[in-house]
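tool_call predict_complex ligand=beta-D-mannopyranose
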Amino acid sequence: MKIDLNDSWTMTFRGNAYPCRVPCSMYDTLVKAGAIPDPYAGENEETATPLSDEDTVFERKVVLPEDIRRADRIVLRFNGIDTLSDVSWDGASLGRTDNMHRTWEFPLPPGDKGQEHLLRLDISSPTRYIAKMQRERPLWGVDQAIEGYPWMRKAHSTFGWDWGIKLPDMGIWRDVTLMGYTGGRILSVRYAQRHENGCVTLTCLADLDLWAPGIEAEWTVTAPGGQTYRAALSSGRAEIRIPDPELWWVRGLGPQPLYLSRVTLSLDGAVLDEKESRIGLRTLTVSREKDAWGQEFCLMNNGVRFFAMGADYIPDDQLLPRCTKERVTRTLKACLDANYNFIRVWGGGFYPGDAFYDFCDENGIAVWQDFMFACSAYRLTPDFEKTVRAEIRDNVMRLRDHPSLALWCGNNEIETAWTGWGLPEDPEARADYLTLFEKIIPEILSQEDPDTFYWPSSPSSGGGFINPEAEDAGDMHYWAVWHGFKPIEDFRKHYYRFCSEYGFESLPDIRTVRYFAGEAQDLCGHLMESHQKCAQGTEKLLYYLGQMVNYPRDMERLVYCSQTVQADSIRFDVEHMRRSRGRCMGSAYWQVNDSCPVISWSSIDVFGRWKALHYAAKRFYAPILLSCDETDPARPAFYVINDTRADEKLKIVCRLRDRAGEVLRTWSADTVSPALSSVSVMALDLKNDLSTTGGSRSRYLEYALIKDGSVISRGTTLFVRPKSFDFLPAEVRARVTVTEAGYFVALTADRFVKGLRLSLKDTDAVFSDNWFDLHPGQEVTVTVDRAGLTPDAFREQLEITSYFPGTVILE
Ligand code: BMA
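tool_result ok
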C-alpha cells in the first residue's frame, strides 16, 4: 500500500503562508505567488540570492487511510529534501536531514486512530550553514559559487556556477510517499548477467525483510515478445536462463528490447509487496586495453567498441521544481534528434530522476554517471562521511539496473585540480580525496554494483594523482581553446583517447537575450554581464569573434555570429576526433543544456531553443559522416566515418567552386565504408587552384556523401576564416508548401550562401535542418511543425538570414 503526499502543503516564509505542491521550493513558491520578481530577468538575482539566508517551513495535514493504518509497519518516505531539515510529526521529531541527494525514510509511531496529523519540515538556511562551516574550516571550491558550498551535500551549482545564477533554494524537491507494509518488505533488488554461448543467465539478488512466517518470494521475467520465465527466490536469490536473448544495444548498433522483471512477496495468494524493473540484456563497459597510442578508453557494448557521441548534461533548471519530466524529456529528445548515442551527467548538479534513465534505456543513449562532487575539496568528518556513504548507496541502488548506465565516475575535475590547478595546500583534504574516491566509493560499488565500470575522476588516467591530464590514457578535458585563449586550430594538435569536455560559448537566441536584458542590450554592460558567469567571458567571446568573423553590427547579428563561430569551432574538433576513430573513441562537448537564461557553452538554451551548434551536432554526429581534413589546404583529404555495424556502399561527390558558387572542378568516387571505421578515401591536389591571387579567399569545396541516391552527409570547407572570404551577395528563394504534417520550405540560391538560418519571428520552432550552406544548382528542403500557425501567419513570421547579407524572395 502506498499513497503520495504531494498535495496540500503550505510554505511559511518571513511570516507569510503560501500554498504549494511537491515538488516545491522557497524561490519557486515565491515566484509563483508573485511575491518576488522573476530571478532570471534583469538583475533580480541580486535581491533573490540573500533570501536563502532565512529559514523556511513546509507543512501539511495527513490523515492515514484505513488500509495503511492496518499495516504492521508504516513508513514515511521523502525522495528528496533540499537540504537541512527537522522533520516532525505532531510536533515530535522524526529526524534530521542533511543531504539533498538521499532518500529519507521515517517509521511512523504506531497506535494511529485515524486522527489528523501534522507533518512539518523546518528547513534551515543553507547559506548560513556553509558560512559557519567555512569560517571554522575553509575548503576551496570554484570562484563563481558561494564560499563554503563543498560543506553541504546539496547540488553545488545551486550556489552559483560559471553558467548558473545563485539560488541556493530550500524545499521538498521529489515525491513524498506513505507506505504500509504487512508481513514483509522488498528492500532492494539487483540483477547480475552472465553472457555465454548465446545464452544469458540472469541472477536476481533481493534484499528482503520478512517478519511473518510463510511468505513466498517469486520472480518473473517477461521478454518483449511476451514469453515469461519464473523462479522462486530462496534466501532472496534465484537464477533464470534465457536461451535466445534479445540483446539491448546502444542506438546505432542495434535495437533496445527491454525485459520486464518483477519480484513479488505474497502470503496465501495475497500480494504483500512487489518491485518492477525494466532490464536490458547486454554488457556495457569501458575497455582500457593497451595499444599503439597508449591505453584506450573506449565504451564497449556487447563486445563492440563504439565511438561515444554526445555532450555533458547539467540540471535543466536552477529551480529544482522546474526540472520536470517534460523538461528532461525535451532535452533528451533534442539529444536524440542530434544523433547522440551518449551523455555525461556532470557531477556538480544532482542525480537525475528516473525519467532521465528510462528515456535513455528506451532510446539507447549510453550514460556516463558522475557522482555529485565537482571542482572542490571535501573533509571527511564523521558526519560528512556517513551521509556521503548513504548517498552513494541510495543512488547506486536506484540506478544500477538501467541498461543505459555505462559507467560511474567519482567526480568532476578534482583529481586534476589537486595535481595542476595551483590550489592552496591542504594535505588533509587531499588525503580525504583518495579515501573517498579511491577507497570508499569503490568499496560500496563492489558490494552494490560490481559489474559497472568505475572511473575515479574526470579527467583521469586511472587515479592516484598520476597524470590525470595525459592525452594517451583515460579521458581528457580540453580547455586551451576558450579558457586558454588558443586559436581553434589548436584542437587538431591533440589526439585525446576520449574527450569528455571541451566547449565554446555563444549567446542564446535573441528572444532569450531580450527575456533577461530587454531591448537595451550592451554585451559589455553590467546587465548582460550578470548573465555571463564565465571568468573573462565577454573578453573571450569578443576575442574569438574578432578572429573568426566580420564585425557584428547589432545584437541580432552578434547572436547570429557568436552561434556560427561556436558551431564551426565544435564541428572542427568533433570531425577531427571522428577522423581519428580508433585512437579517439569519444566526444562530449560542454554542454548540451542551460539551467537559466545565460551566455554559455550550451547547444540548447533554457527555453529549449536550439543554437546553431545543436543543428551542427545533428550533422557532425550523423552515424555515417563525410569529413574533409584541410590541415594542408593544397591536399585536402576526405574521410568516411562509419559508426554502424554494417559495411556501406557509398558515393562521394566533391566540387571546387568559386566564390559565386560556380563549379570549377568535380571529383567523385565510389567506396565501401567498412563497419565501425574511419577511412581516408581520397585526397585532392589543389595546389594550382589555390595559388592564384586570392585563390583561397575566393574558392571553396562543397561535398556530399550519397547512399542509394540520397545525400546522407554533406559539408563545406573554406580555406580561410569566414571574415577573410570574399563573399558575394546571393539571392535566396524560399518556396513554402503546407501539408498535414507541417510546413516544407524549399530553398535555392544563385550564389554560395554560408549559414542559412530560418526562424519564426514570434514562435519557437525546431527545423529539420538549419544554419546550413547552400550552393547554386542545389535545392534543400526543410520541414517544420505547423506550430499552430496558419499558412499566412507562417509566411509572415518566417525569417531567413545568412552569414553574408543578400536578398530573400518568398515564393
Ligand atoms: C568544466 C566543467 C564545469 C564548468 C565548465 C566550463 O570544466 O566541469 O565545471 O562549468 O568547465 O568552465
